[in-house]
Amino acid sequence: MAPAVPKSGDAIFASVDRVNSELFTLTYGAIVRQLITDLEEVEEVNKQLDQMGYNIGVRLVDEFLAKSNVSRCVDFRETAEVIAKVGFKMFLGVTASVTNWDAEGTTCSLILEDNPLVDFVELPDTCQGLYYCNILSGVVRGALEMVSMKTEVTWLRDMLKGDDVFELQVKLLKQVPEEYPYKDD
Ligand code: MYR
After folding, report:
1. How far apart are CA 8 and CA 13, in angstroms?
2. pTM
């Protein structure tokens, strides 16, 4: 029998297309607000949001691979484009652009000009250290780990802190091919 309560975070990313996007945004806001109340320190809230996102990402990647039909990417550059154009579109309803590559092709930035998570949101002065969208960095990290890529994912720009866009830096730390779930044939 299906559990009465979904595992941590599952409901949040239950395909945006099937959920009214305002309800999605307000539900996420309510979760963040509750975490602030419960944990008190914004650093702890940041960690918790990241962990929730990670838990979602490791589960969501199966749905992504099944629905998107993307084939195995040849390199991290292609993976980044897939996340930005297909993954974000599928689960967040918006696309990102990929920029700021380093010379090695292992670090880039995903730029979001539009982010439905922050509609109606304004950070009070007491929450300036909050990475409100930290769930997204966790989702990307968790999903990539399931396709063999250990990454570090960091917010560099945040519209809630006055920046013109959201910039999520994704740094490839290590690839572990044996954990890759595809079968090559
Ligand atoms: C590959 O590199 O072989 C293809 C694997 C691409 C993994 C894409 C993971 C999707 C992440 C979705 C992020 C959604 C954020 C809202």
Report:
1. 11
2. 0.86
